[in-house]
Amino acid sequence: PYLCQNQQLVTMEFVTSLLLCFALQLPLPYLKVGYLTAPPADDPIAPHKHWERSQFILNHTELQQVNDSESAPVKVNALVEKAKRFIKVDVADIVSVSTCSDLTLPPGAGLCINTTHGPVFLVADTWESLDGWLDAIRLVYTIFARGKSDVLAGIVTG
């Protein structure tokens, strides 16, 4: 038994059931977090100078660019700028994932994610970093394709 703040005794079973209850309401941990260079979400063939290095997260359902600033659209000269869109790839939409060396991409290790909506190109800082992204995305996709995403979610939350 354990003592709570109000000096009541509780059992380990109670604590475990309470943790499980709350765990179902919390977001799952990420399988991979790191930086990739990406084009603007609304212009995948933008010139290199418009590509930005930003953080990406991979969980059991999607690869998503992280919004570094949670700020609202900025007002400039009485005009409201359009809110920035971010890249998001649903695992269910992935057809294939591969490296790519293409002169149209900025310098670095190229990543091509072919989806049902068309290709998504990203660039890792190094080939070693790219290998980590490829392995993680392929793992998540393979588990998804076998219909075992819920099993992966259970393993991740432990």
Describe the 3D structure.
The protein has a single domain (30-157), classed as Pleckstrin-homology domain (PH domain)/Phosphotyrosine-binding domain (PTB) (PH-domain like, Roll). The chain is 25% helix and 32% strand. β6 and β7 form a beta hairpin. Mean pLDDT is 79; it is low at 1-5 and 70-81. The longest helix is centred in the C-terminal third of the chain and has 19 residues, at 127-145. The chain is α+β, with helices and mostly antiparallel strands. The protein is elongated, with a radius of gyration of 20 Å.
Strand content: 25-35%
CATH class: Mainly Beta
Q: What's the architecture, going by CATH? A: Roll
End-to-end span in angstroms?
A: 23 Å
How many H/I helices? 3
Order of helices and strands: EEHEEEEEEEEEHH
**Major beta-sheet overview:** 4 strands, antiparallel
Structural class: alpha+beta
The number of domains is: 1
Low-confidence stretches: 1-5, 70-81
Shape: elongated
What number is the mean pLDDT? 79
Relevant CATH superfamily: Pleckstrin-homology domain (PH domain)/Phosphotyrosine-binding domain (PTB)
Helix content: 25-40%
Strand arrangement, largest sheet? 3-4-5-8
Describe how the helices and strands are arranged.
Blueprint: E1 2-3, E2 9-10, H1 12-23, E3 32-38, E4 52-58, E5 62-65, E6 75-76, E7 79-80, E8 88-90, E9 94-100, E10 109-115, E11 118-124, H2 127-145, H3 149-157
Antiparallel strand pairs: 1-2, 3-4, 4-5, 5-8, 6-7, 9-10, 10-11
Give a short summary of the structure.
It comes from Aegilops tauschii subsp. strangulata. The chain has a 4-stranded antiparallel β-sheet with strand order 3-4-5-8. It has a 3-stranded antiparallel β-sheet with strand order 9-10-11, with helices on one face. Helix content is 25%, strand content 32%.
